[in-house]
């Protein structure tokens, strides 16, 4: 009830208080100590009446220049309060927005840093893979070169061995060393066996294939030797050479 009564009294000051208040304000205006706008606010604005009651507590005897200044200060402060509150809220919102912006910027920077580190790691890994690939490729090329060289040497020795067997056989025929059916059968079988064996060894890197070729040729040579040895010949010996007249 007291608060309601005080509010009513503030909005409806007593005649004595109000008359003295208005008269004092008019006197200050005449001395150019307050402006017309301040006069209008001090007389007609409800917040000025409330400030007047708060300062005087309804006592008209306390009204003087200081009372007017204090009421005017309270009134203007009250008028500024909504704007100040709005400005404070706006500053708080701006501060919150700035904090959020900084937080988002920090997260984005952290994500960008993580992405950069991941990209650097991928680049490093790609470089390592490329180096390893080049190393493996170089080793494969070296091994291939070695293999080609071994194959070339193998063919040279194989073909050379086969040629040596043929040349030796031709030389034996030329100097007439091979005499008799058995010797001829043995020589031909041996030549075929050694020649084919050397050729097979030089042509193929597979040792098993060369052994199989030698076994097959050897068996064929043995069969040929047996047939040649038992089949009668029209001449017991190789025909004699005729001396030129």
Give an overview in words.
Helices cover 83% and strands 0% of the residues. It is mainly α. The protein has helices at 2-11, 15-30, 36-44, 46-56, 65-174, 181-203, 207-230. It has 7 helices and no strands. Helix 3 packs across helix 4 (46-56), helix 4 (46-56) crosses helix 5 (65-174) and helix 6 packs antiparallel against helix 7 (207-230).
Topology record:
Layout: H1 2-11, H2 15-30, H3 36-44, H4 46-56, H5 65-174, H6 181-203, H7 207-230
Q: In percent terms, what proportion of residues is strand?
A: under 5%
* Largest sheet, strands/sense/barrel: none
Shape field: rod-shaped
Q: What is the CA-atom radius of gyration, in angstroms?
A: 64 Å
Indicate the percent of residues in helices.
over 70%
Write the element-wise H/E pattern from the N-terminal end onward. Answer: HHHHHHH
Mean pLDDT over the full residue set = 77
Uncertain segments are 1-11, 234-245
Say how many strands there are: 0
Q: Give the end-to-end Cα distance, rounded to a whole number of Å.
A: 174 Å
Structural class: mainly alpha
State the helix count. Answer: 7
């Amino acid at each position: 009830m007291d608060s309601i009564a005080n509010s009513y009294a503030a909005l409806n000051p007593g005649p004595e208080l109000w008359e003295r208040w208005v008269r004092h304000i008019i006197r200050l205006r005449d001395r150019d100590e307050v402006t017309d706008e301040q006069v209008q606010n001090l007389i007609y604005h409800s917040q000025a009446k409330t400030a007047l009651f708060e300062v005087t507590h309804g006592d008209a005897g306390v009204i003087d220049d200081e009372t007017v200044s204090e009421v005017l200060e309270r009134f203007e402060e009250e008028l500024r309060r909504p704007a100040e509150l709005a400005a404070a809220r706006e500053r708080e919102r701006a501060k919150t927005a700035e904090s959020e912006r900084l937080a988002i910027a920090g997260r984005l920077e952290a994500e960008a840093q993580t992405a950069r580190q991941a990209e650097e790691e991928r680049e490093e890994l790609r470089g390592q893979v490329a180096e390893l690939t080049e190393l493996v490729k170089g080793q494969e090329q070296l091994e291939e070169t070695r293999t080609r060289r071994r194959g070339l040497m193998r063919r040279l020795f194989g073909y050379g061995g086969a040629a040596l067997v043929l040349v030796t056989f031709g030389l034996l025929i030329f100097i007439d060393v091979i005499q008799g059916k058995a010797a001829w059968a043995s020589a031909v079988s041996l030549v075929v066996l050694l020649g084919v064996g050397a050729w097979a060894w030089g042509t193929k890197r597979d040792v098993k294939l060369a052994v199989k070729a030698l076994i097959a040729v050897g068996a064929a040579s043995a069969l040929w030797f047996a047939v040649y040895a038992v089949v009668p010949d029209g001449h017991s010996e190789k025909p004699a050479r005729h001396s030129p007249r």
